[in-house]
Amino acid sequence: MMNDATVLTGPSLVPQNGRAKQLVLLLHGYGANGDDLIELGHHWSSSLPDAEFLAPHAPFPCEMAALGYQWFSLTSWQPQFLLGQMQSSVPRLNKFIDESLEKRGLTDENLMIVGFSQGAMIALYTALTRPLTCAGVIGYSGALIYGEPTGQERQPHVFLIHGDADEIVPYESMDEAQKRLASMKVPVRTYTCPAFGHGINQKGIELGRLFLRECLFKE
After folding, report:
1. Which of 117, 141, 157, 173 is catalytic?
2. Which domain holds residue 17?
């Protein structure tokens, strides 16, 4: 059961043009914190001058790292265990999203969700299960722990980026996610970072920038 006292906080980057017309949510990986991903906002802000970037810290202290946070436990990699763990964290994230959008007078159509590793897993799950459809999702070095019909009238656009030398989350996870998303009629594209491990490289950052603009400025 969600503890209402658990309020997500973390670094943010205000829009260059003043009032936010778009919101980009940056979800960090296991054992990290929001400071780890807010740097993406600095790479992208000049191309999205009306966007505000939010990088909340995950709600739980990391079970395997003294200073970091986790969105959910990774004591088991069994899909049903991971799904149950995510479902305990998503209400907190949805509350944060709803309040952040309402505060700025925005809707899910103005929202992009970007995640790295465990953050990508929860980004995909959250985007596919929210009542309203966000503009899009970028998943770096992640996996899809979900495969049911979404129930949404239309689906968010998804871009998966993964290094083929990933030593943490298997590269095959991207192909599995792509096939399952396609079977759910979710518009999905992928990009392989050759000879690259678990991380986000400059090419991935640039492709992410272009995808953000495409999703947020579609006619």
Report:
1. 117
2. 12-216
